[in-house]
Amino acid sequence: MTSTWGKMLKMTLFGQSHGVALGLVLDGLPAGFHLDTQRLQAFMWRRAPGLEEWTSSRQEQDKPQFICGLKDDTITGTPLAALIYNQDSNSADYQSWQNIARPGHADFTVFARYGMQAELIGGGFFSGRLTAPLCLAGGIAMQILEQQNIYIGAHIQEIGGIIDSSYDPILLTKEQLLIAGSRDFPVNDLPMGEQMKKSIRKAQQEKDSLGGIIEGAALGLPTGVGSPPFGGIENRLSQILFAIPALVGLEFGSGFGAAKQRGSQNNDPFIVEQGQIRTAGNNHGGVLGGISSGMPLIFRVAIKPTPSIAKEQRSVNMTTLQETKITVQGRHDPCIAPRALPCVVAATALALLDMMLEQGKIL
Amino acid sequence: MTSTWGKMLKMTLFGQSHGVALGLVLDGLPAGFHLDTQRLQAFMWRRAPGLEEWTSSRQEQDKPQFICGLKDDTITGTPLAALIYNQDSNSADYQSWQNIARPGHADFTVFARYGMQAELIGGGFFSGRLTAPLCLAGGIAMQILEQQNIYIGAHIQEIGGIIDSSYDPILLTKEQLLIAGSRDFPVNDLPMGEQMKKSIRKAQQEKDSLGGIIEGAALGLPTGVGSPPFGGIENRLSQILFAIPALVGLEFGSGFGAAKQRGSQNNDPFIVEQGQIRTAGNNHGGVLGGISSGMPLIFRVAIKPTPSIAKEQRSVNMTTLQETKITVQGRHDPCIAPRALPCVVAATALALLDMMLEQGKIL
Amino acid sequence: MTSTWGKMLKMTLFGQSHGVALGLVLDGLPAGFHLDTQRLQAFMWRRAPGLEEWTSSRQEQDKPQFICGLKDDTITGTPLAALIYNQDSNSADYQSWQNIARPGHADFTVFARYGMQAELIGGGFFSGRLTAPLCLAGGIAMQILEQQNIYIGAHIQEIGGIIDSSYDPILLTKEQLLIAGSRDFPVNDLPMGEQMKKSIRKAQQEKDSLGGIIEGAALGLPTGVGSPPFGGIENRLSQILFAIPALVGLEFGSGFGAAKQRGSQNNDPFIVEQGQIRTAGNNHGGVLGGISSGMPLIFRVAIKPTPSIAKEQRSVNMTTLQETKITVQGRHDPCIAPRALPCVVAATALALLDMMLEQGKIL
Amino acid sequence: MTSTWGKMLKMTLFGQSHGVALGLVLDGLPAGFHLDTQRLQAFMWRRAPGLEEWTSSRQEQDKPQFICGLKDDTITGTPLAALIYNQDSNSADYQSWQNIARPGHADFTVFARYGMQAELIGGGFFSGRLTAPLCLAGGIAMQILEQQNIYIGAHIQEIGGIIDSSYDPILLTKEQLLIAGSRDFPVNDLPMGEQMKKSIRKAQQEKDSLGGIIEGAALGLPTGVGSPPFGGIENRLSQILFAIPALVGLEFGSGFGAAKQRGSQNNDPFIVEQGQIRTAGNNHGGVLGGISSGMPLIFRVAIKPTPSIAKEQRSVNMTTLQETKITVQGRHDPCIAPRALPCVVAATALALLDMMLEQGKIL
After folding, report:
1. ipTM of the complex
2. C-alpha–C-alpha distance, residues D87 and D104, integer Å
3. pTM (2 decimals)?
């Protein structure tokens, strides 16, 4: 439950931000599945840094080297393992503030948990770079789910007060679901994306950063997936989504909005459509009592502003207990939401695949 | 991961809303701990129905019968098991709409998951009544944590647009934390509570229901608790909190609000206070990178409006696939937030105790 | 991993030998399976005491009361729970040697593990009586496996130097597999059984007890079941079999005998029979590299002599640390192997069912 | 439960016999422990091939490359990962019998489990080479246990009918425990070792192989370790020991011998020695009811003869279903027991360390 996740699908992450490599072991994949490694790489690049002006300039190819578990791009069924070598780590960035806890980062809490010998440079094991192997795993999960006509997508719902158009929770099509992910800046509504980018640039110029909200959705999930009370969709999704650094909130369907509604508004009436039981609305976000209803699965996550900012901040030297100032230089995303988005998609794919495997819906 | 939860502490829930009894098995408790069974019962009664005008009139004493694991109120160290007999179930209420899926409930999804032989009356295993054994377990966990000076509390943050005063995320005292829980209606600010009750009564008269927001907090949690990326505080709390029916959102610290902030606002500067590293603010809600910072742990959950309402709603007979109307008679809470609150406290206690046990901080 | 076992199938045991009741929670059973409760009870009675001269005279009906999870004898898919009330516990037997560790029993180690407040009377949670709910669970598992044409049986291979005829590891039929279990004294060869009983009676008259060897087998297990290296058949079977008190050894196929053989003798040549790959011999006991080969699964377990004997033994008072003598009066089996046998069958059924569920071979 | 093992300590193995590398991820190690990497390497070489005439001539240095989790040989507390590159794999050996199931190997069952795309060459993921990372993990566990004065050793009890002198189950000293492991051929009694080697050589000349028995022991394990019924010492040890290929039997204390004894012989009287409760004998092998008694932990495992033999054997081509002959050329140990021995020690160390961590005896 620390670096290993999953029930049928066991995912183990390892590595450090400024170490040799990051790594993944993924066990429990269906044997014989043919992987499209080009699409897999393309998915990973949605998360990789250095590609856009609004991302960190750290240049990482994030090309996985497969150690085992693949044979001619076919999954063998025994553990799949891969390394992603770090190519452009720059520890020098971190020398100037060694032992000074960066505000908003886990430096201090990791130090409290593991002691001074913990590798803190660049966040060590707790760096956002660990989402590279997460995306590798998630990209594989997505391809397996797609073979079952299950598709997962996400778009940026909000950055800097600018709001993208939401997914239609009832009529959402596969095309609408996936359009944002195919864009450099993952929004449904292009002009809104342009405004968001402007807003990010402005924050960066002001040595600051922005948070955001991501809306995720899944289409095609069969009715009846989920094992409440502790293995329901919300339990399983939340457990893995909160592994994404900077993710500080999660809501399903109408979520916090439901708290302001009445039952008669929030309840979704059941109807029959083409011989299938469906709901007329989708305030429930596709999940009732932890089990999928067959409606689009809809959720939103809150991403806090990137903690690394070039503005001077107050902090403490953890070894001397002296108060001091810190200016976090280095190559950081002024808003992490765009790159957190594929991680949200990846984590969702992993949770849903694990649940599908658990219920024998994929063998 | 379905009805059994936990790593060091294994909790297993069983029973059905309209069956003989509900049950709990709790294994991994520290041997030799002396339980205050009166306080335990008092805590359970905070969740029990029939006590206040704004709760269901179902009369349940919710008195656990301990089967094993206690000897003269001392924990033996081997599994503790208890039954809570159902005393006032009234299946007649449910006869009229048999096989008709109640909107907002899990009837349809449970049917899809387990088939027609699943016991659906009163929600069966998926009823809110299953939170009775959850509160029993949580009440035990709370007493063990209190011996370590760890206290958990919650208050109703919002119902029907009426907003209670929040916990002070920095200066929160044990008394402030626990005051709401000691009241019939769990708010910090009594006049706000009166207004909320009025609002609930009004909704009930209008055959409708309300949702709400609960703010939870923990004081005294040592710095350095949490095992990210998959066993961090957020992962562990979210996994169990989402087992509470009607819980549809969760945020830590500034949560969804952080998404609207800049890094310079949201980052909490580190300071030294009485020789200890602390933060000047607490937007991070006491958890950084999945690990406790030593600041108060602060989170909020969204509770959807009670799905059972006396207003007529559209629905479907699941066996005949005929569309129909349903009026959910029976004894239901017009707003479940007040009774969900002790469940939130209980779940939090269980997660934190399990993490403390895992790190050997309680033996 | 203490009182809860299993991956897809979660079994939780609770209760105490001299407490109110023993209990079982079994989650993950296939919904909709119709249980033959009479056959289930008959299986449990194979383990129950008081039925034969060579068993303890404690009179226990071992009739489970189902709390939930069954509806008209059909499995609902949500947790099944049952209590088995203790009806004939006699704690007076245990008064005379309170705090004196019975040799060969876990009194001392349980005391060291859980402290003096652990319930030790009659072995408490660690009594052989906890195998009653194990057999209840196993009896359910057997019926589900039988629907897949998987049958499990066992016979007493050896007691007091008297040796029963072994299962034919290649040609074993369902009838041969199950014959011993249908007999009062579970052997293949009736005259050998009579000699064993004589030998047990003699030991009992001499205030002593005997050990024994049980041979277990499973027929019909499909080829390809098992998830090595840590979830192979031997790992899974051994983990649960060693939960049976008094079980001190386990071997698969030729087992310890293989250690004395050469590869050319012990290797089983592959052949083709009716278009299927089979082995000409079965020294491998139906499992190669942790995965089933399709041949009969064959294993043997060693059962130590019942520790409770009426002969005077040396021991220690655990509270005073005084050396003393103990004569373990009470109602004890002079040889526990016959009653351990259904437990071995039950544990095997549970392990195999869990593995079948894990691989989606039963849904 | 397939390639990931453990509760507090999570070990994940990956790699293939003839792939790029083998790998290990080990999470949950105590942060701050200083590792003696030279001793670790020395331990691994006890398992490595190519070192002695009686081992495979495959030349593998088995030098781990650490990816993360170590900093100046100090354990950081976050996942430790290492690769062991394959340097001398020779797939040509395997070309001649491609698709022909080697008798006694898992080729056929792996094929049945994972299908034809499973990597079978050299046993793939199911090769004995996967015990290299197991020994790496176990060697680390041993050093941590030694700091607690817990020592684990093993010697070859029997090969080819030649029997080594057993450990004294009561008076065993640390020196006696470790002497065999320090020798090229791990026996207590050197002349017996010479005879065993002769016997192995003879079998090899006759194109055959031998099995053997290994006796393992642990000293210094505190009283009270173990969580029965499912997490007792026997459950935990057996689950991991059966991950060692060729291991086909396991017994604790007097084991199968106990089956032939009477209670009065097999029960170990309790006595007081230097103010401590001990047993006069040790037929129970240091474990009573799944919990350590403080006496030496004693167990024996049966190792089957190496399946790979140069003698011609009958087999089947798995793709054509044609019966055929196979002569398993290649570099194989004529008796695997000597090299299985450090694996047994490693597995034992891992299980005991995990249990010590679970009970908070090591933090």
Report:
1. 0.96
2. 26
3. 0.97
